[in-house]
Amino acid sequence: MYMERVVYTDLKHHLDRPQITVLTGMRRTGKTTLVKQLMADSPISQKMYIDLERIDNRVLWTETNYETIVLALTQRGLRFDQPVLLALDEIQLVPNLPSVLKYLYDTYTIKFIVTGSSAYYLKNRFTESLAGRKKIFEIYPLTFGELLTFRGVTARALNWEEAPRFVQAEYERLKSYYEDYIQFGGFPEVVLADAISDKQDLLSDILSSYINFDILTLSDIRDPTNLYKLIKLLAVRVGTKLDIAKLTSFAGMARQTVENYMDLLEQSYLIRTIPVLAKSPDREIVKARKLYFLDNGLAALAGDLGSGARFENAVFNQLLHRGAVAYYQLKSGREIDFVVNQHIGLEVKETAAEGDLRQVESLGKNLALTQHYVVGRHPLRIFEGFIWGGFLR
């Protein structure tokens, strides 16, 4: 049974557009499932799904005479004097594919839906050759709300006015699912696995596939050992400001190499860095970015995260889908963990107290924030402005 993702509404709307629909993100975030559902919902009668992990399909799509591709597809039953829907999965495996798509898009009435596991490849290659002909949709691991849907639990999304209204019965109903999200993240296979050992095995396989397939496809790295070492160093720095000099020293790599690897890891959806908001640059730290992983399960697998860092990383992933996320810090060290859309300030504490909210309100005056909250994991104290993390869904 198909379980709808939040992004699906926008994807389905784009079915009616002639532009190429591009789905990108880490492998195993559910891109193929989304594509097959889009195919089922498309009114175009002529449809074909093409898996480019199959060598015979890759051979066809590397043809230098693009009309040969059309001929082969015609022999498989398609008629190109009528609209056609073609879904191509894992396009990063065919380096010249953007040129093929450009020719076919401009020559025939074809609606393309394509997937790729690499933002780095897609954004660079597609920008060059498919300007104005495509729209990129980024597919992330499940949100907490989507996790609940996948687990068959009914719980609607809450806005900023509703989330602080703590309901004990709802907390009791959802807390085990939220702890699962904090511990194991949101990859669909991991969410649907029942045994902890199965979840851990799946996460290990996802990380291994990411390093050995996605990264090696993207770059000329031949020995991924140093990259894996850097990933482990980053995992224990979740929620902290990046210090490239220290990373360079601990990793035993050149600064430029570390910076290149960091860019690669961010462009390929393993990590995300967020900026500091700086309304008064002379008083604030304006350069350092804070680091988070885009899946809690992979972060915990790669490094020995503390309980607080794991919770903060989960909250970041929940906020990621609510707008632009930054942080705020003075040179004194006082900070607001997250600022959303430049007007909502949030402090993240496993066990929250009223004093945490007062700090956000005090610092928020410097940014003219309009809303202030404390996000907690354990609701031992309930007060105005407190949000239980599980209500951010």
UniProtKB/TrEMBL annotation:
Domain DUF4143: 214-349
Pfam family, one: DUF4143
Boundaries of every AAA domain copy: 19-148
Keyword Amino-acid biosynthesis on entry: no
Keyword rRNA processing set for record: no
GO-annotated molecular function: ATP binding
InterPro entries (UniProt xref): AAA_14, DUF4143, P-loop_NTPase
Protein keywords: ATP-binding, Nucleotide-binding
Protein name, UniProt field: ATP-binding protein
Organism: Fibrella rubiginis
